[in-house]
Design brief:
Elements (H helix, E strand, L loop, with lengths): L11 H4 L12 E4 L2 E4 L3 H14 L3 E6 L1 H9 L1 H8 L3 E4 L2 H9 L10 H15 L3 E5 L2 H14 L5 E5 L8 H14 L3 E5 L4 H9 L6 E4 L3 H5 L8 H5 L3 H8 L1 H27 L10
Parallel strand pairs: 3-4, 3-8, 5-6, 5-7, 7-8
Antiparallel strand pairs: 1-2
Helix pairs in contact: 2-6, 3-4, 3-13, 12-13
């Protein structure tokens, strides 16, 4: 099993305190209509853990250009994401957009790395977690990695649902299994926009924080390669992923990326104009 690079330790003062601002106090902006928070790894991790201790039903989205464009194209999906309790900027284009919209200290909160931060905190604070998504093999490998890296972590439930629409009976069975497991955090890795819709539909049925993490299980189990750090920092992760999975991803990137550049540029120009409407501003 491939070992991912070590995750930087959380700042002890931040990780051990509940003083991180609530999402309502975390600055945010609308990026082509999608609400995105200027949070950090430490603040987002602390907030997820606080909610988990409270057994507060919440859901967290980890947003990139793909998600932004899905919200632009589908008003119902935009409502799903904008109702989330926290939306982190997973991709550098969203970080740059937040900075251009006035949040100069915005930083990237990448889903796979946030997953490890939250797991580290959950192990330290005795918070049980569950995994929903991926394949049985990727969940098994990811769980082994977590138990090796964070001794004492409680992975109380692992569910790899089929890659198709669930029947009502299947959905009820999986939901009941998650609830009865006692998990206070559920990592959901079934891909955008499916996982965001699933979280919105299940947040009232589970006494847990639901955290959408995309391909994190596959990345950390070594089944899918992550882009080199330099490509991630320069906003070229999409190019690396396209090279790895061209048949699956070429339509997404050729359809979404140019339109996102056009839409965010138009938004910024309108914002800068003296007589601009404020409908797209936060």
């Amino acid at each position: 099993m491939s070992q991912p690079p070590a995750t930087p330790a959380l700042n002890a003062a931040t990780a051990g305190s509940s003083s991180a601002p609530r999402p309502s106090a975390v600055p945010s902006r609308l990026i082509v209509g999608m609400r995105t928070h200027a949070t950090s790894y430490a603040a987002a991790t602390r907030q997820v853990l606080d909610w988990a201790h409270e057994r507060s039903p919440r859901y967290v989205c980890v947003a990139n250009v793909h998600m932004a464009m899905e919200t632009h194209d589908d008003p119902a999906f935009r409502e799903v994401v904008n109702r989330a309790d926290l939306v982190t900027p997973d991709g550098m284009p969203l970080v740059w957009s937040l900075r251009a919209l006035g949040l100069k200290r915005a930083s990237r909160v990448y889903g796979p790395t946030l997953t490890l931060h939250v797991c580290e905190g959950a192990a330290r604070e005795g918070v049980p977690v569950a995994l929903y998504g991926g394949t049985p093999e990727s969940l098994q490998d990811f769980t082994a990695l977590l138990r090796s890296r964070y001794p004492g972590i409680q992975v109380v439930c692992q569910i790899a649902p089929p890659f198709r629409a669930l029947t009502p009976d299947e959905d009820e069975r999986y939901t009941r299994e998650l609830q009865q497991s006692g998990a206070a955090i559920v990592f959901v890795g079934i891909g955008c926009p499916k996982q965001e819709r699933w979280m919105a539909a299940h947040t009232g049925r589970l006494s847990a924080v639901l955290l959408g993490v995309g391909a994190a299980f596959d990345f950390h189990s070594g089944r899918v390669k992550q882009a080199p750090a330099v490509m991630q920092r320069s906003g070229l992760e999409w190019l690396f992923r396209l090279a790895m999975e061209p048949k699956r991803l070429w339509k997404r990137y050729t359809r979404h990326n140019p339109r996102f550049v056009w839409l965010i540029t138009r938004q910024l120009l309108r914002r800068a104009a003296p007589d601009t409407s404020t409908t797209l501003e936060a």
